[in-house]
Amino acid sequence: MEIFLVGGAVRDALLGLPVHDRDYVVVGASIEAMLAAGFRQVGREFPVFLHPDSGEEYALARTERKAGRGHRGFAFAFSPNVSLQEDLRRRDLTVNAMAQDSAGNIIDPYGGQADLAARRLRHVSEAFIEDPLRVLRLLRFAARFAELGFEIAEETWNLCCQMAQAGELAELTAERVWQESEKALQSAAPQRYFQGLADMNAMNVLTGTAIAHDWNKAAAALTAAAARTSNPAARFALWTQGNAELIAALKQQLPLPKIYSQWLERLQNIGHDFAAWNNSGRKALATLKSLRRLARQWLSARIPASDRRCPNIANPHHRGAKCDAARRRCQTSCRAGLGRRGIRQSPASRANSNLGKILKCCGKQGFIHF
What we know:
Blueprint: E1 2-6, H1 8-15, E2 23-27, H2 31-36, E3 40-42, E4 48-50, E5 57-60, E6 62-66, E7 74-78, H3 84-89, E8 99-100, E9 106-107, H4 112-117, E10 120-121, H5 133-144, E11 151-152, H6 154-165, H7 174-185, H8 191-199, H9 204-207, H10 215-228, H11 232-240, H12 244-253, H13 258-270, H14 274-302, H15 321-338, H16 347-364
Parallel strand pairs: 2-5, 10-11
Antiparallel strand pairs: 1-2, 1-8, 3-4, 4-5, 6-7, 8-9
Keywords: ATP-binding, Magnesium, Metal-binding, Nucleotide-binding, Nucleotidyltransferase, RNA repair, RNA-binding, Transferase, tRNA processing
GO molecular function, one term: RNA binding
Domain Poly A polymerase head: 3-122
């Protein structure tokens, strides 16, 4: 029995990125041997086991062949005779088809390290076309690694276009399409995912039908959104540019979480682009500053002249007999002019507080930055 670390963990380690999930392939073992070693079996289509201590996934080396349509139409074969190279060959991209043994040696039969160095996303074999989900995964990786300079290999891009033209992507379930799309929205350059679908004329996988939309303009809007906010729902809504027909198609075709639907409706109803949001934010901020200035002037006029010399009168945390006495006289003066509830009943104070809440909310949503 030999155990190898495989897939994304090896790729990310070679790129110097944090490794979050670790997957292992076990060569030369059987189901009985894994159970006898204390592993717990999970998975229905092929045997995957959880380590008794770490809970990490260990899968028996396997091969696969196309037995039906879609990304689930595969028949798997696993036995102690399946080699590591055979297992790696079934993977989608060369950068994901590397393994590491217990001594730290890299096993790279398909040129994954060379493609990492060249910043290239390339398919392992012609079997790539057997699984349409790999098209979306490829675009998601292109979005995720865009900051590192990765590009899709020409031959791999051509395969994806062939699959899209053949209607293979229509076999994907809406749930799987949305899973990949949402992951892409959380990446560094989500526009590469959506623009890739548009360039290969595969946007129907998201909308279910042809929609008249300026995808280039949408990609530019998503680029701007990604630079301003990490909120995937906000990014997704801004990508639609308030196109009512597109929004209706997305909500009908995809199993969107409630927050995404709310953001789509919000943008459609408000109809503002980023410039409008920023202009609104600047106007609100200017109003807030003006109100604060007026409030300070109003308070200053009511502080007895003998107390204005105290530098800490405005500091509620400062303690001292002189400041406390001055503060009490100031509060008495304010109440005399405003009533028992004092400054909190001031119209300027109420407006100040409400605008502050609005600006705080807008800031959390990523629309306003100052």
